[in-house]
Amino acid sequence: MARDGAVYACQSCGAVTTKWSGQCSACQSWNSLVEETGVRAPGALSVTKASRARGLQFTGLESDTPAPPRIITGVDEFDRVCGGGVVPGSAILIGGDPGVGKSTLLLEVVAKASLKGVSCAYISGEEAVAQIRGRAERMGFAQAPVKLAAESSLRDILDGLKRDNFDLVVIDSIQTMWSDAHEAGPGTVTQVRACAQELVRLAKKKGVAILLVGHVTKDGQIAGPRVVEHLVDAVLSFEGERGYPFRILRGAKNRFGATDEIGVFEMGDSGLREVKNPSALFLNEGGERAAGAAVFAGIEGSRPVLVEFQALVAPSAYGTPRRAVVGWDSGRLAMVLAVLESRCGLGFGNKDVYLNVAGGLRITEPAADLAAAAALASSALDIALPQDCVVFGEVSLSGEVRPVSRMETRLKEAAKLGFGRALGPLSGLPEGGGALPVAGVARLADAVRRIGDEIWGQLT
Fold first, then answer.
1. Is 250 exposed, middle or buried (0-12, 13-18, 19+ CB in 10 A)?
2. Which strand ranges, in their side-by-side order, compose the sheet holding 16-17?
3. Greatest pairwise CA separation for the chain in angstroms
4. Residue 299, SS3 per DSSP
5. DSSP state letter for 400
6. How far apart (Å, rounded) are the C-alpha atoms in residues 129 and 152?
7. Which residues on adjacent β-strands are paired with residue 7?
8. Secondary structure element (H or E) that encloses residue 206, with its range
9. What contacts 232, CB < 8 A, 6 or more positions away?
10. CA-CA distances (angstroms) from residue 259 to 104, 236, 255, 301?
11. pLDDT tens, 196-211?
12. Are 95 and 222 in contact (CB under 8 A)?
C-alpha cells in the first residue's frame, strides 16, 4: 500500500497510479513504477471559485495575426531547422546520444547570437563554468558576451531569469534540474515534468526563448515522459554515427516551421562546421562508380540531398544467408529483395546481401526504393551504373515504379552537381523534360533490364 500522499509514477511513460505493480498498465514496461510524493493522483482536479466565475472564453479564426518574429542566431543550419530562426517565447527540446555534440552546438548558437546583439545565457547542471569557458576558448568564442552559470536548482534558475532580461537561454540539461517542491530525485518523471512545465511557463510569460537539452535512452528516444515533448514547441534530434565526423540536426516537431527539416554539420577540432552543400559531402568523387553503387536523389525536409547507396551481393558461406543494412530500414530491404526475386527473376536465396548508405546518413523516404533496387541489381549482375546517373522512385509490391513528390527539385539538384541523366518513374515526370533527361520506367523489371542491357544512351 502507498503511504498517504504517495503515488507510483512510471519512469517510461509518466503514467500515475495509486498502487504498485510489476508492469505499467499504460506502456507495458516492467519494473518502471517508482513511488513518488507530491504528485496529484488522476482525477483530482480542483475547481476554484475564480475559475467558475471566469468561465471559458471563445474567439474566432478571423484575425490579422502577424508572423512571429525570429531570433537569427547566426548558425544558418540551426536556424533552417527551427524554421528560419528561433521564435521568442518558444521552448525547444534538443536530444541526442552522449558525446554527439549537443553542448558544443548550443554553445556555438548562443555565442554567435550574442555577438549579433542577442542577450544570451547558458546554464549547465552538468559542467562547471571553467569547463564551459575552456570549450568556448577552443571554439574561438572566448570573447562572446554570454552569461554563464552552473546550477541545477530550479528555484534559483527561475529567480535569476526573472531578475535579468534574456532573449535566449540554454538549459543543459533538463534531466539534471530539480525542484524543491517535489521529493523525487533529479531525472525522475516527476522532476522532469515539473521543471519543464515551470521553464515553459516562464518562456511564455517573459517572451524568452529556452533551449532544453534532453538525454536519450538506449533505443534513441528522449528520456523522461513524452509529456515533455508535448509541452515544448519544437523537438530537434542531433544525430551522428560513430566513426563519421558528420552530424545531422533533424526536426521531429516544430510549431513554427516544417518538420523533417535537417541541418548538416561536420565535427572538427575547433567545434562544429556548417555544411552548406551536403550532397557533395555524401557522394563519392573518386573515379568511376563501381558495381553495386547508385546515387539517390532524395528530399530531406525542404532540402534536396544526393547520397550514394552501396550494395554487395556475395555467395553465402552458411546455410542461412545474411542480410545487413546500415542507414536504411531492414524491413524495406526485405520487401525490395522479395520484389526483385518474384518480379524480376533475380535470386538472392543463397546470397549474402549488404546495403549501406554512404556518409552515415539515415534515409527514411520511400523514394529510395528504386535506388536500393538498382544498387542490388547492379551488384548481382556485376554491372556498374553510369557515373552521371541518379535514381529515385518508389517500388510497390506488384513491381510497379510509382511517382514521387518534388521530382523537378531532385533533378535540379542533380544537374547542379554535374549529373547528366536520371532513372525514375515513367509517370509524374515534369513538363518539358525537367533539368535532366529521365529514363522513365513503369516497372522494376524494366529498370533491371536497362541495367543488364546497358542501354543508358536510349532515354525515353
1. buried
2. 16-17, 6-10, 33-37
3. 81
4. strand
5. B
6. 13
7. 36
8. helix 189-206
9. 91, 92, 93, 196, 200, 212, 253
10. 23, 9, 9, 7
11. 999 999 999 999 999 9
12. yes
pTM: 0.78
Count CA atoms closer than 13 A to 90's CA, side-chain side: 21
> Measuring CA to CA, which residue among 173, 170, 210, 185 is closest to residue 95?
173
Question: Tens of pLDDT along 244-272?
Answer: 788 889 998 999 988 878 899 998 888 89
Residues 292, 368 contacting (CB under 8 angstroms): no
Strands 293-300 and 271-274: unpaired
Q: Are 246 and 361 in contact (CB under 8 A)?
A: yes
Q: How far is CA 250 from CA 192, 234, 247, 301, in A?
A: 23, 11, 10, 9
Residue closest to 126 by CA, chosen among 99, 89, 162, 160: 99
Q: How far apart are CA 9 and CA 265, in angstroms?
A: 38
Cis before 302 (ω within 30): no
Instruction: DSSP for 60-109, please give it.
Output: -S---PPPPP-B--S-HHHHHHHTSSBPTT-EEEEEE-TTSSHHHHHHHH
CA distance 37 to 194: 13
Neighbours of 30 (CB within 10 A): 10
- Residue 161, classed as helix, strand or coil, is helix
Cβ distance 139 to 106 under 8 Å? no
Give the H/E segment covering residue 195: helix 189-206
Grid coordinates representing 85 are 530562426
Alpha-carbon separation of residue 225 from 34, 130, 191, 194, 432 (angstroms):
13, 32, 11, 11, 51
Q: Which three cell numbers stand for residue 148?
A: 554563464
Identify the CA nearest to 358 among candidates 238, 244, 247, 242: 244
DSSP three-state, residue 456: coil
> How many H-runs (helices) and E-runs (strands) does the chain carry?
12, 21
Q: How does DSSP classify residue 317?
A: S
Given a cut of 80, is residue 76 above it in pLDDT? yes
- Amino acid present at 76: D
